[in-house]
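retry 2 of 3: previous attempt timed out while embedding iron/sulfur cluster. Reduced batch size to 1 and resubmitted. Inputs unchanged:
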Amino acid sequence: AMVDEKDPAAAGLGYVADAKKADEKKFPKYAAGQNCTTCALYQGKAGDKAGGCPLFAGKQVAGAGWCSAWAKKA
Ligand code: SF4
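retry 2 succeeded.
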């Protein structure tokens, strides 16, 4: 199942399925180019539309998504 943006845990982290819709007022750390596929925590492979994220166990996040826990992939 995909993470629902309205899920309280997701909303608290500012998760959006489309990174371009990140709430930049609430989460000023967002910068263009940040999305789940460029996040160190993302468990999907390059090119996958969705993948796992340890912050949302048992669910999938959109590769094009984003949340405020984004961390640059090494
Ligand atoms: Fe996406 Fe990273 Fe947030 Fe997980 S921690 S939802 S992979 S941005």
